[in-house]
Amino acid sequence: MSTLKKALATAVLMQLFLASFARAQNENWFSELKADRESLQRLLEHTNVNKLSKRIDAVYEPSGYTWINIAWAVMLMKQGIIPEEHVPKVAAALEEFWDSPAASRYKDARGFQGYFNGKLGAPVAGNMTIGRVLPSGRMEMPVRRELLKQMSLLYGLQEILLDTAEKYKTAVMPGYTHNRHAQPTTLGHYLVSVHDPIEQSLEGLERGYRAINRSRLGCGALAGTSWPIDRELVATYLGMDGLIENTNYAVASSDGFVTVVAELTNTMAVLSRLAWDFDIWSTNEYDFIDFEVGVGSFMMPQKWAERANQGQIEATWFGASKTLANLTEVASMGMKVPHGDTNALEYHMQDGALAALGNVNQYAKPWLVLLATIEVHEDKMLARARSGYSAATELANELVRTDGLDYRTAHDVVQTFILESVKQGLPSREAKIEILQAAAQEVVGKEMKMTQEQLRQALDPAHFVKVTNCRGGVAPEEVARMIQERRKRLAEARARHLARIEQLEKGKAQLLADLRSLAEAAGKAKEPAGSEGEQ
Questions:
Q1: Could you confirm whether domain 31-55+141-171+186-376 is CATH 1.20.200.10?
Q2: CATH class of 392-459
Q3: Which tens digit of pLDDT belongs to each residue from 326-344?
Q4: 78, 140, 319, 392: which one has the fewest Cβ atoms less than 10 Å from its Cβ?
């Protein structure tokens, strides 16, 4: 096994251990949470979102632009493109610059070059940006930084979704299709169905990260350069996953930005549907769930006393709309322009991407505390499920098993039975065997073997949930298996995420080490012969 694979395997095991330990502690402190900023911060700490965000911000100090500019200059010195006699002054000046306030001031190669021309003079510093164009890397660096932070957040959201799903894996409720009772489900099964497309989107964000995290530096205007540059070394210094090799593709690339914003749009679309369901389910008419806080009304005093408006949930909808607008912006930015160096492709692909990442931070983050503090009325959900006939498919299944009917015929028998039962105003919990037998006589000309007790059991949503245990089904044991499997995948994803952050840290550390070595070597070269060791 390679060193990298061993490291990832160790990280996965650690993630699983820590997650298991944290879940064991959840009951002790989750009950203390409230829907407030303090609780949100506790959840962000609990899911390591804050810790990783601080680490990501730290690696970008003093600035992503300085990181690029110095990486290029160090490469030029190591390749001998900056003349050897100028390396002492250039290396020393770069070391000093890294820790100075000026390091966060210059955002492009022109300003960086001008600063050092003024400090060292053009004859010494004038080659520090040779072979470069202005934009390369300027869009990728800030988008990469925010993408890593929002991926950390979404991994945290996955964790809370799975925790909440596990807590409510036996909470029976009606399942809906076309906003009508369809089949019984559980809140836990529903939340896993929300988790899974977010997990898929995060896999897409990993692909988008890899696309963005390839270096374009060294592409020139479109054709590269005749100087013996080392593009791979610059990519390593910047913690990147290699190069966009073709130099014209490097100035014309848009795909990574489009991929990222498309996956963010899908994530927000999923959350918008969750928001819709939760908003409906928290109304007086449903009363399945409730939230600790909400928004009152300037005019209507009962909004606080009875059931507050859920402003944060509603905000998810227009957050999703904004993100879709960002996708339109980013995708269309690369349309109807030349496949080459243009302002749209070189300067503005980041605009919509950063806005979309900001939307996820603003509108997805509150869901950590909304899910962790949700109040679930399990008795009311079960009662509502039992008021209808959403377990009818299981009754039809039983007729196939016990009476040898084909499913289509069993469907007709059950449909006829339910039509008459509804006509008589009978909920499923009061179903009568006489009505079923009359329906069977009408459809197939004979009675079924089923008893009154068996009929009501087949129509009971709790029984339906218990026996619907196919892979991916609603049975609590199957939901528990799915949650356990997804926790393992989440641990693996987080290990990969940590490896991405560590790659940035290692690249930056190698850059600074090489810069220091150049400066030290230059300093030794200036020492008088025979001075070493003399006192």
A1: yes
A2: mainly alpha
A3: 999 999 999 989 998 888 8
A4: 78
